[in-house]
Specification:
Helix 8 runs parallel beside helix 11. With about 280 residues, the chain is mainly alpha-helical. It has 15 helices and no strands. The protein has one domain. The longest helix has 25 residues. The protein is globular and about 60 Å long.
């Protein structure tokens, strides 16, 4: 029997690994932009926008992993699970990248192995394919059902969404300005990524049968059938799931026609090397 709405709202998840992870990330950020920056004179203080984006990123991750959304998505509703996945894969990485000052990231790229890693995995075609392949593979019924029964596999899934989410946003929102795609290429890149997500959403929306056994056999929350729940989840991926990419696309399109001057490397749509000083 499905629990009442009031009972669901009490099902907060105080998983220690999530709490510790969020605490460590928060402490590391505030230490880096505060005492470490001041002691080593690394750069100017983070802007209000950067700090706000970091706070929002922690709030988004907390809501996705600790709130009743987690219990609802794991036990009752596929559509709730899609909301959780999209928060972790699309919105959280965007906010993290917007929170990072350039001076905080650039020194890391002086290490050859980090620069090489980012140069390969943030190459637009590679980042685009790996992010969307990761999303698609985890939604295969055999793996998806496993995530609902094996918490370790579920954690791995969420971490992969967050990691590949950072990589796929990097060509558009890198803290290093010369690594960002030129606006015309950025528009195409963001549009392509949205299309991948839309195709998967269409599959869920128009499928005549539900794919995932745990949701078929779960108590029917709020009277929503397993098929209707799956179709609604597909619509979430199709429309709200693409909203961050749509907003970023519109901003890039607007700035393109506003006449902002990109660097010579950006005009060609390529990314500059990750080692060395900014290009003029």
């Amino acid at each position: 029997m499905a629990p009442s709405t009031s009972a669901l709202l009490t099902q907060w998840n105080w998983e220690p690994s999530v709490l510790i992870g969020l605490l460590l990330i928060s402490v590391a950020y505030w230490y880096a932009v505060g005492p470490l920056r001041q002691r080593r004179n690394l750069g100017p203080p983070p802007t209000t926008l950067q700090i706000s984006c970091f706070v929002l990123s922690v709030a988004v991750a907390s809501f996705a992993l600790l709130s009743p959304l987690d219990a609802i998505s794991d036990t009752y509703l596929f559509s709730a699970h899609m909301v959780q996945h999209l928060l972790l894969a699309s919105l959280w990485p965007l906010l993290v990248l917007l929170s990072l000052p350039e001076w905080l990231v650039r020194p890391l790229l002086r290490r050859a192995w980090i620069a090489g890693f980012l140069s390969f995995f943030t190459f637009p075609v590679v980042a685009l394919l790996m992010f969307n392949i990761d999303i698609d593979v985890w939604h295969l019924p055999v793996l998806y059902d496993e995530t609902l029964s094996n918490e370790q596999v579920h954690i791995l899934e969420h971490l992969s969404f967050m990691a590949f989410g950072l990589l796929v946003w990097w060509p558009a929102l890198s803290p290093i300005p010369e690594q960002r795609l030129a606006y015309p290429m950025r528009v195409l890149y963001l549009f392509a990524n949205a299309m991948f997500m839309m195709v998967l959403g269409i599959v869920f929306t128009f499928s005549p049968t539900p794919f995932y056994a745990p949701y078929v056999h779960a108590p029917r929350l709020w009277g929503i059938s397993a098929l209707a729940d799956q179709q609604f989840g597909g619509l979430i991926m199709w429309y709200p799931g693409n909203l961050p990419y749509a907003i970023a696309l519109v901003v890039a399109f607007y700035r393109w026609f506003e006449g902002e001057n990109p660097s010579p490397s950006q005009i060609s749509g390529t990314q500059s090397p990750t080692i060395g000083p900014p290009l003029p």
